[in-house]
Design a protein that fits this description.
The complex is a heterodimer of chains A (about 325) and B (about 290). Chain A is an alpha/beta fold and about 325 residues long. Chain A is about 30% helix and about 20% strand. Classes of the chains: A alpha/beta (about 325), B mainly alpha (about 290).
Amino acid sequence: MQRPILEVKNLSTTFHTFRGVIHAVSGVSFHLNEGEILGIVGESGSGKTVANLSLLHLVEGGVVQADVMRYQDIDLSSLKEKEMEKLRGAEISMIFQDPMSSLNPLYTIGHQIEESLKLHTKLNRKERRARMIDLLSKVGISDPESRLKSYPFQYSGGMRQRIIIAIALAVNPKIIIADEPTTALDVTVQAQVLRLLTDLIHNESRSMILITHDLGVVSKTTDRVVVMYAGKAMESGITKDVIHEPMHPYTDGLLRSIPRFHENQERLYQIPGMVPRAYDLPKGCRFEPRCPKAQPICKNEEPPVRKMSNGREIACFFPISKG
Amino acid sequence: MKRFFESEFFYNYRKSFSAVFGSVIIFLALVIGLIGPFVVPQNPYDQKQTDLSNAYLPPMWEEEGRAEFPLGTDGQGRDMLSVIVYGSRISLLIGISVTVISCVIGTFLGVFAGYKGGKTDSFIMRVADIQLSFPSMLIALFIMAIFGSGIEKLIVTLSFVGWVMFARTIRGETLSVKNQEYIQAAHVLGYSDWRILFRHVLPNVTTPLIVLFTNKIGNVILTEASLSFLGVGVPVTQPSLGLLVKNGFDVLFSGLWWVSLLPGLYIMLLVFGINLLGDFLKDELNPQLN
């Protein structure tokens, strides 16, 4: 078996606030193989973004702990800030949710792409220019030469997201972390941008972590998926397996909440209750208060992570079994 | 440049009478300050050029006035027009340099405090709060009384008092810009903190500076005039407009009104012009009003 390019074991990120300790991420493990797209799914506040920011040391005011946090042969948790800066953008890059505010309004597109090239590469002026034009045509911007001189406000949302992708790809990073890259876009543009992203990943043998709450996006684009809830990984495995045969009641609930074409649904299914507040988590399984299959043991004990066949992992005492 | 002249900002500016009027006053005052000394009839501080027997001559339109001294003379026989032109140079010099210095210091501290947050932020802002809780005039009086008068000392003192306003405003702007995604994106691209601070945060917080800067100049000129009037500002050998008002104040009630009133009027006009422009800029650049 090949060694994953990125490996995280037992990652915890906590914030100490006046309301108490907030466990934004507690004991999450995942890995990313080379050339693979890993989906991380969860509701807002489930810790999916924080987990990834923790990797890059970008969590402000939080304490990050992990048994293993490894990129290739580099131990991420021991990196100093200076070394981390070299890694960010050059090796691991990130794309954010809102393209309208992810570009600095005061600089031209060209300036913003070039800044990263200047910092992380030794290319000269001409080479940088060639690279920028190449990047823009790759992300599907027509007439790239004149577009370099435009300012962000002259672009539409979809085009801005393409520019942001171009900036993220500029220095040829091995891993791209895309944090809900299509959430702020129109549905038609969403499909285009996702297609573009996945093509760029597969054609150039990069790897990607796709953070999203859209299971449709997950099933279409990712190879493996981690389902997170209230800072914990509930279920993970090969996307097809997880989507077609969810074993965790939470995954099952999420999947049942998707509207379907061919069934006559009076009312959409919803998971009862609310996400627990981060400073007031249940003692046992975090999903217990909302779980239709909960038993007394779920209330008092945290379910251990069980390894199943085909790389599947699940944190539940009573997984749904086939049949 | 062409883009500026075609902008909405410039259009509104042309339409606003008070803004144009204000800038004309400022422009004239700057021209007078720059080339005035080469044009006026005498150098009032060269004793060879003044004559004590010409003391207290009224302006030329009064009965005893002489065309030689269009605005009359003071107690030393100095031409009032020349005195005012020389004085306005000092006032403008102090006004502009104090504003520039406090703007630079205040902006830097403000952006730094806002960006760093935590203890750095608390420390800088508490110092600012403490300074704000004293009237700035009082602090300035106190410092000047200890160290004595002098243009450089006055500039240092007023800058020391003046940075607070800049720092507070810029800090507020920084707090909102800091949470924009493009700043986070800059972190992700591996840019260093200083680079982000200067290249990405700073340029995005400067809009309110233009307004603050303009108003501050008028403000400083007034404070300087008050301090000089109280006798702790500029030295007697380099009188600013405020000191001129003071010098004439002793003889104001003997009917020799021009010695005090004319420099006073000039201060008023100057600050009026600056405030007119400042008000226009405030309305124009304040995003809440647009």
